[in-house]
Amino acid sequence: DLKGFIFDLDGVIAGTAQYHGQAWHQLADELGVTWTEELANGLKGVSRMDSLEMILKAGGKENDYTDEQKVAYATKKNDNYLSLIKQLTPADVFPGIKEFLDDLLANGYQISLASASKNAPTILEHLQLASYFTKVVDPATLKEGKPDPEIYTRGAEILGLDPANCAGVEDAAAGVASINGAGETSIGIGTRSELAEADVLFGDTNELTLANIKAQMDK
Ligand code: G16
Ligand code: MG
């Protein structure tokens, strides 16, 4: 039986994924790396430094920069991203998310956050959702990023729950892989072609309700 829900942030709670995309796209242009839909999707849920490595690799430039230069580029992307997310307000919370969170708490479920983003606490403040997420995995303490299971394993741990009693909610293939690897129920938000491995799938956050989840799990 499900007792806890572990949430991704970017692409599940709000549309910050588009700002990550915008900021990486700008950096890719500067590095002379062609920006493609495939590259953009592959970066979803992936940590900051791993994302930079993927971009450099896509352009065959993985050996062109020192670690110091790479950190400088990642910092530049983050500064750009931070200026983009300043405009976030509670109106940017995806449809149905606040209702779902309220419903979970009203029914005694526990919730935690498993975002790879070091900016997650700031974003939650802007969205006025910080009070829902008193349990947040600190991505700075992780050895491995998504798709490794570590972040979702920790998401269950901080709730004091067995992973088998937890569900993770994700918009990225790397995140769904992390949830499945942790032995939790994966709930994907997106398309079947992108999230082939999700146990439960919804096209849109407004379909995310306890009743709809149970209906798909009972199938
Ligand atoms: C998010 C985004 C990724 C981003 C990562 C790290 O993960 O989806 O695109 O690269 O966080 O973010 P930051 O650079 O802000 O630390 P998630 O797990 O919330 O989808
Ligand atoms: Mg995400």
From TrEMBL:
Catalysed reaction, written as an equation: beta-D-glucose 1-phosphate = beta-D-glucose 6-phosphate
Gene3D superfamilies: HAD superfamily/HAD-like (3.40.50.1000), Putative phosphatase, domain 2 (1.10.150.240)
Molecular function GO labels: beta-phosphoglucomutase activity; magnesium ion binding
EC number from the UniProt entry: 5.4.2.6
Keywords in alphabetical order: Carbohydrate metabolism, Isomerase, Magnesium, Metal-binding, Phosphoprotein
Domain of life: Bacteria
Active site positions: D8, D10
Annotated Mg(2+) binding sites: D8, D10, E170, D171
Cofactor note (record): Binds 2 magnesium ions per subunit.
Record GO biological process: carbohydrate metabolic process
Enzyme class label: isomerase
Cofactor section: Mg(2+)
NCBIfam families assigned to the protein according to its UniProt record, in alphabetical order: bPGM (TIGR01990), HAD-SF-IA-v3 (TIGR01509), PGMB-YQAB-SF (TIGR02009)
Family: Belongs to the HAD-like hydrolase superfamily. CbbY/CbbZ/Gph/YieH family.
Record-given protein name: Beta-phosphoglucomutase
Designated gene of the protein: pgmB2
